[in-house]
């Protein structure tokens, strides 16, 4: 890669029914065998290891207040593909949360049913 190489941080934010993408441009400063040193227009230099390029990471560690977010660093010509991959990752995360919630809902229903069968309130 040449000194003119531009990397982008593609972030997909899903918030209460709206998916927005943010693209941050990063300029290549140094390339080594293991990593790139990149810098945004304003801000600190970041070391991006080559194996992390095009790898989606979850910005939101859990689902809260209708918000999920994922991001990845890629070359400028890969932005479109990275957006598609982020969409798939967010879909997968949502499906996982739905499955886990369904299991928990069934546990609540079972416990509620057992309590109804057990008798009057105040007994357990």
Proportion of residues in helical segments: 25-40%
Secondary structure tally, helices: 1
Oligomerization: single chain
Query: Which stretches are low in confidence, meaning pLDDT under 50 for 5 or more residues running?
Result: none
Largest sheet: 6 strands, antiparallel
Give the strand tally. 6
Integer average pLDDT? 91
H/E series, N to C?
A: EEEEEEH
Gap from first CA to last CA: 69 Å
Order of neighbouring strands in the sheet with most strands: 4-3-2-1-6-5
**What structural class do the secondary elements suggest?**
alpha+beta
Radius of gyration: 22 Å
Can you walk through the features of this model?
- The protein is of the alpha+beta class.
- Helices cover 32% and strands 36% of the residues.
- It contains one helix and six strands.
- Strands 4-3-2-1-6-5 form a six-stranded antiparallel sheet.
- The longest helix is centred in the C-terminal third of the chain and has 40 residues.
Secondary structure elements and their pairing?
Elements: E1 6-15, E2 18-31, E3 35-40, E4 46-49, E5 57-58, E6 67-75, H1 79-118
Antiparallel strand pairs: 1-2, 1-6, 2-3, 3-4, 5-6
């Amino acid at each position: 890669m040449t000194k003119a190489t531009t990397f982008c941080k593609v972030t997909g934010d899903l918030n209460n029914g709206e998916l927005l993408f943010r693209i941050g441009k990063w300029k290549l400063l140094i390339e080594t065998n293991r990593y790139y040193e990149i810098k945004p227009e304003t801000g600190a230099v970041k070391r991006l290891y080559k194996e992390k390029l095009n790898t989606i990471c979850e910005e939101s560690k859990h689902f809260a207040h209708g918000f999920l977010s994922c991001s990845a660093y890629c070359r400028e010509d890969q932005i479109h593909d990275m957006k598609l991959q982020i969409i798939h990752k967010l879909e997968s995360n949502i499906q996982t949360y739905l499955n886990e919630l369904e299991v928990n809902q069934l546990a609540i229903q079972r416990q509620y049913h057992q309590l109804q069968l057990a008798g009057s309130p105040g007994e357990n």
